[in-house]
Write a structure and sequence with these properties.
Blueprint: H1 9-37, H2 53-65, E1 140-142, E2 149-151, H3 166-178, H4 183-194, H5 200-216, H6 219-228, E3 233-239, E4 259-264, E5 271-276, H7 281-285, E6 292-294, E7 297-302, E8 305-310, E9 321-323, E10 336-338
Antiparallel strand pairs: 1-2, 3-4, 3-10, 4-5, 6-9, 7-8
Helix pairs in contact: 3-4, 3-5, 4-5
Amino acid sequence: MSPPESPSYEELAALVVDLTSQLQLAHGRIAELEAKLGRDSTNSSQPPSADSIVAKARRRADRSSRERSADRKPGGQPGHKGSGLAPSTEPDRTETVAAPAECSGCDGDLAQGVDAGTGWAQVWDLPPITLEKVHYLLPRRRCGCCGKTTTAAPPFGAAGNVVYGPNVNAAAILLGIEGNVPVERTAMLMEALLGAPVSTGFVARAVARFAQRLAGAGFDEAMKTALAAEDVLCGDETPTNVIHKDTNAHGEPVPGSPHAVTVRTPDARLVWYAPIGSRSKTALKGLGVLRVMRVTWSATTTSAGTSSTPNSPGCSNAQRIMPTSELCRCRVQRCWWWR
């Protein structure tokens, strides 16, 4: 059998070019996989919960290896507002506990011990919370002119009914709205903490009644007027799940994803929540508060990773006035600032 023919120079050159191309593709793919493998919450917008086991262990090791500065004292640093309890000079009551019966050093009997003065301690606690049930007697008076009988009105609710009072309603609204607690858990906490076995329907109706009263008092218009008078506002939008989407005049679902918008002053003196049917320019402009936007936060990439810094040139939208139809697509944090 004759030996195989040797490839020509042209064939060898073409093979080298093909192998070089495949090698370049392989190098690119390897670099891509290495970058993806090394990406975690310290060098990208990936949340810490999505980090790999190795990345989490590396982060814990890095925290434990940090040395405290010799000039840094333990505890809160200068300028930090503490939250510890200071002894009250006017306590609600003073009690004396029983004297110690045994020595804390040798366990000896202290029945014949010598009086060494008095120490002190304060315990701040809540008294037992009980649901107060008040029975109101409502006097009736019959008019001598027309004969109609008028019954006195109770402080809350209506005659002949048993209802929860304003404080129970306020607790349900505070937990459900400000605390962002679901309706079922709000009812459960009301019973566990306050001894008020309310139903989920009561919680939902309390919130609905409160919303109706705010609308009747012109709360939204007053809040929008106050917000529009501010020099700087900040806000954010969050997608929400709804049972039924809004429909147009033809009964078709309105395009877009429903969102809840928060608009507030930087110091949180004014905070306004509003629903919008979509995150469109028209929907945002329809709020009647937002005009132009100034983005003051951006993302920068350093050797230590990606961080969010104010007024940074790392984001092309930083320090730039723009209409509300545009957004700053920062890798770490998206903040809107309107003025």
